[in-house]
Amino acid sequence: MTQVFGVIGDPIGHTLSPLMHTSAYRDTGISASYVSFNVKQENLEDAVKGIRGLGINGVNVTVPHKIEVMKYVDELDETAKRIGAVNTIVNDKKQNKLIGYNTDGEGYLRSLQSRLRKPFRETRVLLIGAGGAGRAVAVTLAHKGVKQLTIANRTVASAEALAEDCGGETRALSLGTAQASLMEFDVVINSTSVGMAPGTGQMPISLEKLASRTLVSDLIYNPWKTRFLKEADKKGAETLNGVGMFVHQGALSFELWTGVQAPVKIMERTVTEKLR
Ligand code: ATR
């Protein structure tokens, strides 16, 4: 029987998830469809009930529902609990349970790992931003034992709260202090929405003090190269955009749903061809 997957969010029009997942079904010979569902907040509970009611096999959950949806699933896996958000629901029909997972942080880590110059446990990271996307990345990096994690945010209190949740040695800074101490870090990640289309041209912090050995990463992939990454290029630094995170979070969802290894290269090529 054809399986049905999808994504629920609001707005949902621009998502590349259907294209990406469909390319994976084609490549692996899985008979499935992937549908975008525009779900208003007041209909979220009904939408989640509808997964079970209609026998939908699984959905991704995106902005703005990742936190609220936790209330409506039957079970949360450890990672979703740790991050405090769900981006993937599995309809486990044998157990008659909807289970919430989060693949965002691990997806980012996978995209980052191949680009690191030092072992992960020796890497010092500056994360800019403490919103939803930043939280998934911060909690994952801290849990996996990065050497040092520093979180900088416009609203310092949010960076402090997130650092507290990450535990260990995680520090919080203002954007200005982070900017002045840029040379301390091996990896600098922008998780804020600053630089996202259509308001491109903005930078979350200046990269004037950047060392060329630093890897500069942006979770944004539209535009493909934000001004933040272009300025990093000019400093001779390596850059990583957000497309790898998008592909890997989707690949991990695919694997949770199907039990089949995701064709990551095909998924990445599909998304890249569309965006570049
Ligand atoms: P997302 O789910 O994409 O992470 P979010 O949860 O709304 O979105 O978080 C947005 C992040 O971008 C926050 O860290 C926010 O900083 P504040 O906590 O101070 O609001 C950051 N951000 C948004 N606009 C910004 C701007 N103009 N300058 C600096 N930071 C900004």
UniProtKB/TrEMBL annotation:
Residues 119-193 form the Quinate/shikimate 5-dehydrogenase/glutamyl-tRNA reductase domain. This is Shikimate dehydrogenase (NADP(+)). Pfam families: SDH_C (PF18317), Shikimate_DH (PF01488), Shikimate_dh_N (PF08501). The active site is at residue 66. Keywords: Amino-acid biosynthesis, Aromatic amino acid biosynthesis, NADP, Oxidoreductase. Residues 7-89 form the Shikimate dehydrogenase substrate binding N-terminal domain. It catalyses: shikimate + NADP(+) = 3-dehydroshikimate + NADPH + H(+). NADP(+) binds at residues 78, 129-133, 219, 242. Shikimate binds at residues 15-17, 62, 87, 104, 221, 249. The lineage of its organism: Bacteria, Bacillati, Bacillota, Bacilli, Bacillales. GO terms for cellular component: cytosol.
